[in-house]
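Incident log, support desk, overnight shift.

02:14 A customer reports that sequence design results differ from what the structure should imply. Their input is reproduced verbatim below. On-call engineer (initials T.W.) acknowledged and began investigating.
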């Protein structure tokens, strides 16, 4: 283009053109009249699309380089350009040899010898798109691998921990009891290690997305307290929870928040040998912004100033190498920091050698109407449920793994009548035969319908529209719970679990449905 007539509303209008100004452009350029007929192309256009100018001169460009499925879209874009609007779009084109090419197209309305036309610039972005597709596919494979590994580790671990719990109650020989306790603690250590590694990999994958909602953190801490108190009690440590503000609302992912608190608390337990651990929650203003502050303090060994700089780094601990004194991967605090920052929060530590540490976690305050009931007494499980039922309600267990089926029946046999099936098809066939008050369902049921599909079919039966369906699964990564609950499940418990945890979930579900 050589002579610019006017510029108005971002539209450049030309009265004449000269090929020599754009023939050497690395981008493919074509000039079209208002009927989409080719008036000129540059060398890069011929190179990209394999058509010579003589082959397509005065012919409609669409029949040569636009894939059939995009013809309607291209006609609409051409009309927009002719109407004196600039058009930008990433789309597909095809070359003479049939190869599909991803291009970034820029359409500019022009005047050609007093007639309307369009100048189109095509930038080949095929390599960029291909690289993105490969990256997306790699992320999908990584996510699938992590989910499968999580399931495959958790399912057998559920049996190891569950049966060792049962044996601890039934064995009387001291030597055998010592062995089974070692088996249980070693399995728990292995599970914690695997969980940390898998969670870190999942957190760093492109598919990780928190499920944000408005949450009262005071209520969440009250719900966590029984577990935390028991952990402290197991090591003969005291525990306290101070709630200074009953209305500590923040916009977060509940499951991720619970994991952050658990990771930091586990760290405090590990390095504290006497005294106790306390948690305090309050709200205050910092730098003109309102925050929820959660401090977890311990009377442990403390952390030097030098080590405070590295404890949030991956695989780092205060004691390292062959002389290290404590178990663990060194990932708990790394995960906590990444998760906290992912939700717009901060975490830091204040500590002194020999006196203990205070980890402070803060999230933006978002005042709302979710309040902690002033007159309600929170037991430390966070489950204000009644005693177990005197009669034995009938429930259905849908589980294809024989070992886990035996374990759950042992856990529940004193409180429920349990029918069991191994597939989704068998579950659907069993539903009309009995009046089940609750259904326990694994997600991965092998060949045939999975647990999600089975739950959706059961929900179509009027009599079971509101019956509690509890997912019992090894799929426990962040985001998987939400997917499961959206498929018609009432609640969710991840493997492995204790008898008490399973009973808590069942009783709570039954109370909600009554």
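02:41 Re-run completed on a clean worker. Output:
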């Amino acid at each position: 283009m050589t002579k610019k007539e006017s510029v108005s509303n971002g539209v450049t209008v030309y009265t004449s053109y000269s090929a020599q100004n754009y023939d050497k452009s690395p981008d493919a350029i074509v000039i079209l009249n208002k009927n989409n007929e080719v008036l000129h192309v540059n060398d890069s256009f011929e190179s990209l699309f394999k058509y010579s100018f003589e082959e397509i001169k005065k012919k409609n460009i669409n029949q040569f380089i636009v894939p059939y499925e995009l013809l309607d879209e291209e006609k609409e874009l051409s009309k927009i350009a002719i109407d004196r609007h600039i058009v930008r779009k990433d789309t597909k084109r095809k070359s003479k040899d049939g190869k599909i090419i991803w291009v970034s197209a820029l359409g500019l309305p022009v005047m050609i010898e007093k007639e309307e036309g369009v100048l189109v610039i095509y930038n080949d972005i095929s390599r960029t798109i291909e690289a993105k597709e490969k990256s997306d596919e790699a992320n999908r494979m990584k996510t699938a691998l992590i989910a499968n590994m999580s399931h495959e580790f958790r399912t057998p671990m559920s049996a190891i921990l569950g049966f060792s719990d049962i044996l601890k109650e039934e064995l009387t020989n001291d030597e055998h009891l010592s062995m089974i306790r070692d088996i249980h603690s070693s399995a728990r250590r292995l599970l914690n290690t695997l969980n940390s590694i898998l969670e870190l990999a999942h957190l760093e994958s492109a598919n990780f997305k928190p499920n944000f909602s408005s949450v009262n953190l005071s209520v969440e801490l009250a719900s966590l307290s029984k577990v935390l108190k028991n952990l402290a009690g197991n090591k003969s440590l005291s525990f306290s929870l101070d709630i200074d503000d009953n209305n500590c609302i923040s916009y977060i992912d509940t499951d991720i928040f619970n994991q952050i608190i658990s990771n930091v608390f586990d760290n405090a337990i590990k390095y504290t040998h006497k005294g106790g651990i306390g948690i305090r929650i309050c709200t205050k203003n910092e730098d003109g912004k309102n925050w929820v502050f959660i401090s977890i303090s311990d009377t442990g060994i403390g952390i030097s100033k030098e080590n405070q700089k590295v404890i949030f780094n991956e695989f780092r601990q205060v004691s390292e190498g062959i002389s290290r004194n404590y178990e663990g991967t060194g990932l708990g605090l790394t995960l906590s920091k990444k998760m906290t920052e992912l939700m717009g929060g901060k975490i830091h530590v204040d500590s002194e050698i020999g006196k203990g540490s205070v980890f402070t976690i803060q999230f933006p305050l978002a005042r709302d109407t979710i309040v902690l009931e002033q007159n309600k007494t929170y037991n430390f499980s966070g489950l204000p449920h009644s005693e177990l039922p005197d009669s034995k309600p009938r429930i259905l267990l849908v589980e294809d793994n024989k070992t886990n089926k035996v374990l759950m029946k042992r856990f529940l046999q004193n409180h429920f009548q349990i029918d069991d099936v191994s597939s989704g098809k068998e579950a659907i066939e069993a539903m009309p035969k009995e009046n089940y008050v609750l259904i326990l369902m694994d997600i991965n049921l092998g060949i045939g319908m999975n647990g999600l599909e089975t739950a959706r079919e059961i929900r179509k039966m009027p009599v079971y529209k509101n019956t509690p369906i509890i997912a019992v699964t090894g799929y426990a990564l962040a985001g998987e719970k939400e997917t499961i609950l959206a498929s018609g499940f009432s609640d969710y418990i991840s493997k492995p679990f204790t008898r008490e945890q399973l009973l808590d979930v069942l009783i709570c579900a039954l109370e909600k449905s009554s």
